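Tokens help. Our protein:
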Amino acid sequence: MKNLLIVPLLFSVFTIGCNSKSKKNEEKELKKEKEVSNQVEAEKNSQNYLLLNNAAGKFKIGSPIPFPKTSNHYKVRKETQTIIEEGVSVEETVYIVSKGEKNILHLKQGYNSQNINEITVLSSLFATSKGIGINSTIEDFITQYPNYKIWYTYVSGVYVIETKEINAQFLLNAKNFIGNPKITSDITVLKKEDFKPGTKIIKIRMI
């Protein structure tokens, strides 16, 4: 009788052990699949927000403006804005790219063209392959791109730091300028010391 009881008991233990092992393997596989999925999504997002020569993610200088098309990642709307150039008010058409409630890019078209002629990056989502983007400091930029140049133009009143490694203008916070440059031409070369420590990039422009 005892022997008859032992056999079902052993079978039950074996079954429970197998089920437990199977469950662990299943959890392990699900975890692995999730990690792979997260990695793919991260790479996808990285490409969506990577700053390259004349490109911010999928938006490239010379490419058609994706309007009124939208995607799961962004929406595009069209607006007419007034800007001041050399003291003169000028109206221009701007295509605003938004993600959720936040504006992330401004796109401008070329003359008699529906292609992108200028890109202005407004969001810290975008960054170069070296991690430089909006809210990066002047020191961060110089560390990653030692071959840099800083300049000011009175035409648009902007302070720019740039590098030959990427065709883009990184606009610095004008409020942190403490230098006293002599304006002798459209472009005046500046130094790092002309700005307060920790001065941040506030916009990025590609033309």
User: Anything to note?
Assistant: The first strand starts at residue 51 and ends at 52. DSSP finds two helices and twelve strands in the chain. Helices lie at 2-48, 138-144.
